[in-house]
Each structure stands twice: as C-alpha cells, then as structure tokens.
Request: fold
Amino acid sequence: MNNLIQFNDNIINLDNKQLKSIAYAHGCANSNWKLLYKKAFWKYPTEYIVNDDQIKEAKKELEVRKNKELKSFKNKLVFVNMWMSFKSKKGYINNHRIRSFFLNYDNEICFLEVWSNNDNNFMRCDFAKNESKNYNNYNYNNILNDINNIKDHKIYSRDFLKYRKNILLDIINNKFNCNYKKIYFTNILNDEELKNNLI
Reply:
C-alpha cells in the first residue's frame, strides 16, 4: 500500500497512456467483493486512487483526443501501438506489436499485424488479411509466410526481415497494392477505430 496515492493532477495535463489508465481504472475490492476504490497505474510501482468524476473526465478528454487524431489520420497509413514500447534505433519500429487497418488502391479493407523482440532483430507476422476479399484468410498474398520465412510448414531461413519502417512500408505497398509514403503510429486509438474511420 506504500505506493498507492490519491490522484490530484489535472486530467488535461496527462499524456495518452496516463489518460487511458484513468479512463479504464480497475476496481479494487475486499475479500467480500465490496468495492474499496478504483486505481490507475502507468509507472510501476506507483498506483493512483481515482474517483468516478476523474474517470468520467478522463473518458471525455480521451474522446476529444481520439476524434482529433482520427481527423488528422484520415487517408493515411496508421499503425496502432499495442502498449509495449521500447527504445529503438532510428528508422526502426519502437513497439513490440503493431497492427493496422488500411485501404488499398481497390478500396479494399486490409489488415496487418506484425511484431518483434526488443532489439529489432526480426519482424514476425500473425495476420495479413484482405477482409474485402476473404475475411478468414490470415495469409493474404502469402505475406505471413514470406515475413515468417515459412515454406511447407517449416521455417526455411533464420535470415528474418528487420523490424524497420521502410521494410514494413514496402510490404504494404507491394503486397497489398498500395502507395503510402509514410507510416504513422498512434498510442491512443485502437485498430477497430481505425477500421471504422476507413468507411
């Protein structure tokens, strides 16, 4: 309990990570399931007690920021950071897992999720989809196998692609039939919000 303190800062002054933590604060109960308080945390080991008014205010500010970001990202290639950031070299991606919905030249809704370890030695892929053509195909245009170096259900090489922005951009433009010039990243939006913004 030493690291549990009452939150008293101004909601407007918070960064996106702090804001989301308060907006989605966790309830803490006793052994009889009686709610004692709600807490938010963004930097171990400190935890902040927040009240319902602060949660309501954080959610309101979160919506304002999301709407502003959605407008600024219209028709751009935006990847959602999955809250696992780390320091990276210039030109490399600094989040362990990222995902995006985007449109290609044919106005088809596409989805890609890639990830890496914390030193950018490799890029891996879990999902590569063209939802407009086949929602259930997770290996659209053989992208998943190409990134993961899989052939005949086996890894054929340990020479993986680097987890770099320019490599990811090339994959998207060449494999999904796109012509994006730059990748943007967001820490406040989720992938479904990106998808809904495409329509």
User: Anything to note?
Assistant: The longest helix spans residues 52-72. The two ends are 47 Å apart (CA to CA).
